[in-house]
Design a protein that fits this description.
By secondary structure, the protein is mainly alpha-helical. It has 7 helices and no strands. It is rod-shaped.
Amino acid sequence: MSLQDLGSLGEFVGAVAVVFSLLYLATQIRQNTQAVRASSYQDVAQGVRAYMALLAQDERLAQIYLRGAAQSDELAPAESLQFEMLVGHFFANFDVAVDLYKRHMIDEKMMTPHTRFAVSLLGEAGVRDWWQRSQGFFSDDLRAHIESAGISAGRSATELAQSSAPLT
């Protein structure tokens, strides 16, 4: 075998090694993307669980939420602040979920229940009033998502929950 043949063989082996390296890298990137998506899913789910736990574990806070959701202008100033922070807590997490959905980090299967939950909250007069006052603190994407679900149109909670869908 000549020196030129050995050089050609070396180039071929090098090319094969590069192809295998690229295939390995693609596999690693795919696995990493799946891990990041799973982590994003977990983070969004944890945010909703934390919100629900706040209401489930504190009867006084649950009563404030129920009164505020029905008619927020009947709350005392401290209660009003608690109601606004509680609802804001959910919508801050929902804002993150919308962002992750738009970046394809969570899928429609995850987004749809969150949208329906937001719709059910906004079906309450006090929460809708809060949203009208507070929407400027949230992303354009969240506001567009809420508008696309028809939430701000003042429809009933049942109508909204049946018609809600994730962003397209």
